[in-house]
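@channel sequence for tomorrow's demo:
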Amino acid sequence: MSPFLVRLFATYSRGYLRRRFHSIRILKTGLPPSLESRPLVIYLNHASWWDPLVCLRLAQSQFGQRTSYAPIDARALARYRFFSKLGFYGVEQQSARGTRSFLHTTSAILESPWNAVWLTPQGRFMDVRERPLRLQRGLGALAAQAENATFLPLAIEYAFWTEPRAEILVSFGGPTIPETEPGRSASEWTQHFSEALEATQDELAARSCRRNPEEWLVLDRSASSVNAAYDLCRWAGARMKGESFTREHQPEQPG
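structure tokens (generated this afternoon):
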């Protein structure tokens, strides 16, 4: 991993998101808790192609003291080796050997109390409304091995509110430390994490429907374009009717 390249790519990604979304909002009741110096596993729903960039922004803003890693399909990493400089490590999909490799590599990463691993255990893009939530067993197997780690659910949703561009809405759920609840099997841990992530998603969806800006902490925001769009429509309507449109009511010209 190259810390310099991570910072450079994070800066680029932040601007990229700001150009394409209206804001990134974190639910105030879903801010990440203060965590002990333990290794961290953040598991999230996989709603969109944008998820890795959102996670990178959250890693920089909420967990800046940690070094973040994430698994990626081994074939993709072989094609884009640059990703290994950003903390990605290859995993062979849909095979027992790939599962063993994932558990071995991830457990080794989690030996450091200041490392974080970001996982999308749904394994594919899925609609945020799909229920029940079914996560892959590898997450539960990891909990059975890395019992001293903190496991933290993260819900992500992309919603249109009042702007032409969508809002990125995120919320963290409550932490789980497997060693405080010994005796669970891998399948039981997977079910536990499925229920925790589903509850976090349900709460995020309910708050999204309310659209109350007071409930959210704005992490990033782009300029509003609603007023300019309305002014442009008024100006175009006036021109079609042959009416005058005074200078102070004319829309700003692009650029």
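heads up for whoever presents: Helices lie at 3-20, 51-62, 74-79, 96-109, 137-145, 186-210, 226-240.
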